[in-house]
Amino acid sequence: MVAAYCAWPAVHSFETWIAGELVGGLYGVSLGRMFFGESMFSRRTDSSKIALAALVCFCRANGIGLIDCQQRTEHLRSMGAREVTRTVFEELMAPYLREAPVTNWTYDRSLWSRLR
Fold first, then answer.
1. Is residue 65 classed exposed, middle or buried when 0-12, 13-18 and 19+ CB atoms within 10 A define those classes?
2. Label partner for 85 (CA 20 to 30 A): which of 3, 20, 51, 70?
3. Cα–Cα distance, 34 to 63 (Å, whole number)
4. Is 2 inside a domain boundary?
5. Is the pTM above the cut of 0.70?
6. What is the pLDDT of residues 65-92, one digit of tens each?
7. Distance CA 73, CA 13 (A)
8. 3-class DSSP state of 34
9. Does residue 6 sit within a domain?
10. Torsion of CA 48, 51, 55, 58, to 10 degrees
11. Residue 21 domain flag
C-alpha cells in the first residue's frame, strides 16, 4: 500500500533539511489546482513550519488556490488556515479540481519571495 501511494504521481513532499539531515516536512496529494495535506512532522523546532511556508510559496506561484490542512490546530491557524463547513469546502474546492494539474513540482529558491 505504501509503495503504491509513493508511486502515485499526485503525491508530493516538502522537506526541511539541515546539514544533510531531514528535520521536518509534510506530504500530500495534488488534484487539479488543489493540495490535500496528509501529514506533517518535525524533528527540530519550526521545521514543519518552514516546509509549510515552502508549500504556500509553491502554491502561490503555481495557481494552487486551496490547501486542505485536514486539521484544526493553533499551528495551522497561525499560518493563516481557517476552518470552513463541509458545504463551503465543497464549493471552494470544485473549481480548483476542474483545473489542469501542475506538471512540474520542482522547487526553486526564488519562490520564497511569494511569502510576502
1. middle
2. 51
3. 9
4. no
5. yes
6. 999 988 888 877 877 788 999 999 999 9
7. 20
8. strand
9. no
10. 170
11. no
